[in-house]
Amino acid sequence: MRTVKRIAKWCGIAIGVLLLLAVGFGVYLYTQKPKPIGERPVLQAELFRKPASELPVEQRFLYASAGELAEMIRKKQATSQAIVRAHLNHIKNTNYRTNAFVWLFEDEAMAAAKAADEKVARGQTLGVLHGVPVSVKEEFWIKGKPNTMNAEMFQGFVAPRNAESVDALLEQGAIILGATNVPKLLADVQTIGEIYPTGNNPYDPRRTPGGSTGGGAASVAAGMAPIALGGDMGGSIRIPAAFNGIYGLKTTEGTIGSGKSEFPGEPGNPKYRRMMVAGPLARSVEDIDLAWNAMMLKWPERKQKMLAVKGKLENYSVAYFDEWAFRNDRMFIGQDVKARLAKLAAALEGKTAAVRRDQPAGFEEMILMHRMLAVYLMFEKVPWVIRQYMVHEFKKADTHRFQFSEVLARMSDLDPDQYDDLLRRREELANRLDGFFGKYDVLIMPVTPGPAIAHNPEHEAIELDGKRINYWDYFYYPVCFNATGHPALTIPMGLNGEGLPVALQVVGPRYSEQRLIEFARLIEPLHEGFVKPNGK
Prior knowledge:
globular, eleven-stranded mixed beta sheet, Amidase signature (AS) enzymes, alpha/beta, 13% strand, 16 helices
């Protein structure tokens, strides 16, 4: 009996010690959690609810292109004030459906539009986007405005200056209407976070507009702005553009901006700031061309690096594929996307120098490179103990489809000496892809396996054509070209039978943005392009 009591006593002590250790570890983890910056911002509640009565809107301005609006202003056929007011009122009337905008800068926008009209009246030199309204992703700093990244940890952060890409638009006369919705820390392909209401797709509010430029893409598709400024580190321009049936240009790494992140709480080690690029989203290829060229005026020396255009469609050599094969596996692509790609490839037969089904090598290597670069970028300031917990959670969710052991090793140990070797390997991958483009001028391929997915906050498997797809498998194609730094342009292919946008992306060698834009313009007659939500 005494022995039993002794055992019970020591068991109780052991359990107590374990409980104390667990509590202590929990307290330690809590102390390692970043403390929020400042106070939670007071949202503009009217943006997220249906107005009691709609404001008047001059409809002719809403789906006009940025080029058309700029010409109206230059020729005094319309004022910037009238155009900006129409877009502001449209946002106030309809934003509750999509939550595309999270901040509206009404007073500043109208003041800037008034100044733009006065400049026209004085006969002064005008920028190429003079008086044209645009939206800006909440990722990019706008001086004096909230920059929360839709995360409590940055809830009170206010931008101390403009992002360089924002200045590039302003220097050409653009009028910023407001900031658009993003996922928490830009770390998802759905627009869900801790500060702002969830973003919805204008074609079906039960579906996501994508991420992380989800709000920006929705703002363009819904007629709230002709151009949106977006950012892309893993498809964050191209996926929302595809889900919203518009064009979206992921630029060559290093062509727009300084290449430094402008996240709240930076600087951090600038050496790790890779893959993040800025670029425009628009309803037409002409507006992509206009916006991209306008922004590049800030960096004319970089524009000189751009590859020459080909002139005619018959001069282009084109590769295309749908399901990317790797090892003994391949990525599943749905019938909607396959059919549009096959139709486009058939339409190109006889119109181009060559059209061949072919794919670049190194798919799995590109995915792993993207993940490892992202680990250094995102986890640099994350405490070691929290990274170990994240490794544990990652292992539990790993489907073992890809060889992620090196990613987990880097997540556990951010060895700076390994980073230089990683950059060397990255350049080898990029050069190998440029070798592929020694045979072809452009590559046409899917953005995602299918259209916009239903809201899926738990990241559960996605149903498509009777097949269950792992959540992240739906979004692997775009990250390959962030891993290598190559440009890519989403091209809308019209709507499927459910009324949802279907899209493809066209990829080219580094510094081929102008070529991609020209190619997209040349193939416009071969597909449906942008279709307004509800066919309106």
